[in-house]
Amino acid sequence: ASSIYPFGGTVRSDDPRSRDKTIVGGKGANLAEMAGIGLPVPPGFTITTEECVRYLAHGADFSPELKDEVAVALRHIEQAAGKKFGDAADPLLVSVRSGARVSMPGMMDTVLNLGLNDETVQGLASASGDARFAWDSYRRFIQMYSDVVLGLDHHLFEDVLEIAKEDNGFYADVEMQAENWQAIVGEYKAIVRSELGRDFPQDPHEQLWGAIRAVFDSWDSDRAKVYRRLNDIPGDWGTAVNVQAMVFGNMGDTSATGVAFTRDPATGERAYYGEWLVNAQGEDVVAGIRTPQYLTLAAREKAGAKPLSMEEAMPAAYAELAAVFDLLEKHYRDMQDIEFTVERGHLWMLQTRSGKRTAKAALRMAVEMVEEGLIDEKTAICRIDPMALDQLLHPTLDPDAPRDVLGSGLPASPGAASGAIVLDADTAEKRAERGDAVILVRVETSPEDIHGMHAARGILTARGGMTSHAAVVARGMGRPCVSGASCVSIDMASRTLKIGSRELAEGDVITLDGSTGQIMAGKVPTIEPELVGHFGVLMEWADRHRRMKVRTNAETPDDCRTARGFGAEGVGLCRTEHMFFEESRISAVRQMILAEDEAGRRAALAKLLPEQRADFHSIFEVMAGLPVTVRLLDPPLHEFLPHADAEFEELSEAIGIGVPTLKRRAGELHEFNPMLGHRGCRLGITFPEIYEMQVRALFEAACDVAQTGDAPVPEVMIPLVATRKELEILKALVDRTAAQVFEEKGRTISYQVGTMIELPRAALMAGEIAEVGEFFSFGTNDLTQTTLGLSRDDSAKFLSAYVEQGIFARDPFVSLDIEGVGQLVGLAAERGRETRPDIKLGICGEHGGDPASIAFCEGQGLDYVSASPYRVPIARLAAAQAAI
Ligand code: PEP
Ligand code: MG
């Protein structure tokens, strides 16, 4: 196979490799494609990514045939352009650009105007009749080449130019005349000589090979590596090199250059959108040296700008360009991001690619393109990045507003919020009741902070990862949250804190961006989400194409209502412990835990029963006949214990047991490893009366609701099961209690009893466990924690190093470790089905809202995924994409 593919001129290649992004890179493929459909593309050739990979593997050595192939390809450009490379009279100049399989904006290198030297610059001057243009091009080339290929700091050159302008009394580059540029060229060459001890290369072929080498080398530059890591781009793809005849937008007032989108990338509106500059070269538009002008008359008028649009200033070239826009959109069936140049009235296309866009624009374009008949529904569904919907589901910071960034943490729950800093949950609640917007800032949160989290507009924690308590609860509530911000240190004694280097006090206003993890001083303005219109239409399409159901993780009627509004088809996980932490109940819960015997526990549970029944009642009402998976108490008891002396005293007063006794009991309940301790079904085994109360509350509520409304569909779920026997004992408890309630109420409700699969042993023994359990819900938070032996609450501190070093591609608490943990899921699903072919399978760990994990669940044939309310639309879309 060839390592070079020419394009443009008379080339008509039917070799599919010449348009294959994996071989010739995205830019090369699109240039070949454009040339192929007859668009004006300057002739050129592409050296393949395979050659780059080979070059890097062979210690920066080209394959032996490459020299000859480049010589042949160069002749193709010379013929098509009618100029010769290195010709002293009328030289061919080329650009050399990188182009990987996916675009990596600004990450790799480009050299323009290559082929100029002391001789050819004269030829360019006389052939173009424009000496100023020729010398300007030469100085640009020396600077770019010195930076990219020779490794010299561009500031050396910029400083010289600034001084020259000052000396001449010039303000802008355009004031520089031919002789000024010629003088600059002399100074630039002197810089190269003094820095490197040798002259700037004069041989165009030496220049070309130097540039090719630099592009290949740039694949392994530090910034490219960082970009790849952040964007999950494999290091073994390599980049292609595109060598192309130069065309010039800086040949006077009939020349121009610009960038354009075929639709508005911010709003999605079907209108050309772009910027251009007369008498300029491409980098002038991007670099912001001159202010670019509007492309269309409509845009100029709307902005009330003076300088003529391209539509007015160059009507013929503009008309040609507009026709190209339409052709390209029809051809690629997507919004295109285009670079073009007009050289003395003649239009040239330099690049096209699918344009980046906001989530809002993506939705509008996808829906309108279906209406226009450009794409079908499935394509539209697959066009939208599910995670990008997050941008639309929460208020977001105004992108144009200035930001005073103090520091950052993990982007734990998206959206933006501003408010006064409060350092504890009670204060948060009190201030919120007074109508203040507050941000709760804690070292980390615990279930006791729930009321404060609910009262706060946003949550900031110094510790904890993406599945820490703060993160999970905040996502569930739709509160923006930045977690694990190690730049935050709190001094509770003085009620002050430091964020980064800045000293702050309780009451100071900050802003959180939960989508990026940024923490900012003061209030940054936000914009509200819109969930209607194109968003709704696309969601309907997604629902038509998905197989898996989407449920929600919710434990309050409010959350259930929010989730239903977002299209949830049931509750996949109702964590009943969240109901225990409410102010009115916590002392009864503590009384229950600290009781010395069963009788003491029962007395406390009797107080909790009506409260819990009321919770279930309202949830069943909101969910109106949709399935609700209720998980019985799960967390380690020690989480409910009082800590401060005042709390012990308060409790002592409330329940009439002395403080010393309470403290002794609390000491007995202390655990070294609570996540592996007295929690989950182990609580039900040792204190069956707790589960009995919960089950009773649940079925009493179900019977009551069934009397007037839709019959609830409860699924009772037992957490942290490792053995069949545990489930057997607890299922019997559930059945027994349910039967009692049905007898008392004179009504039956059909229900199921199942288990979470969240321990490796449960996954391995799933065949046996399915003999008892009627459904499985994969608790992938704990399953990840226990399979990797990695604490969900402590790993944030070092996990980023693991991701950076490529040990994990992504945080395994965010995106399922499919290779490892995924095996256990697959195995449990298979063994469960062997025993019970109709067993219902779902996932309720945080992964239920992660698109990659959802795709995996589709592959395993799970029946549903369950995600926090604000992730429900993301899950609906991801499930549809997985099914398509
Ligand atoms: C799980 O472990 O994945 C789960 C959903 O339960 P929790 O997060 O409440 O432990
Ligand atoms: Mg769990």
Q: What is the beta-strand fraction?
A: 15-25%
* Overall helicity: 40-55%
Report the mean per-residue pLDDT as an integer: 92
The shape is elongated
The total of beta strands comes to 33
Q: How many strands, which pairing sense, and closed or not: the largest β-sheet?
A: 8 strands, mixed
CATH architecture of the largest domain: Alpha-Beta Barrel
Domain PEP-utilising enzyme mobile: 437-517
Protein name: Pyruvate, phosphate dikinase
InterPro entries: ATP_grasp_subdomain_1, PEP-util_enz_mobile_dom, PEP_util_AS, PEP_util_C, PEP_util_CS, Phosphohistidine_dom_sf, PPDK_AMP/ATP-bd, Pyruvate_phosphate_dikinase
EC number: 2.7.9.1
Short recap of the structure:
This protein has 884 residues and is of the alpha/beta class.
What does this molecule look like?
It is a single chain. With about 900 residues, the chain is α/β, with parallel strands linked by helices. The protein has four domains: about 50-245, Dna Ligase, domain 1, CATH 3.30.1490.20; about 255-355, D-amino Acid Aminotransferase, Chain A, domain 1, CATH 3.30.470.20; about 395-525, Glucose Oxidase, domain 1 (3-Layer(bba) Sandwich), CATH 3.50.30.10; about 545-575 and about 615-635 and about 680-884, Alpha-Beta Barrel (TIM Barrel). The chain contains 35 helices and 33 strands. An eight-stranded mixed sheet has the order 14-24-23-16-17-18-19-15. The chain has an eight-stranded parallel β-barrel with strand order 26-27-28-29-30-31-32-33, surrounded by four helices. A hairpin with a 4-residue loop joins strand 20 and strand 21. It is elongated. The chain starts with a strand and ends with a helix. The chain binds phosphoenolpyruvate and magnesium ion. Phosphoenolpyruvate (PEP) binds near residues 634, 779, 781, 782 and 844.
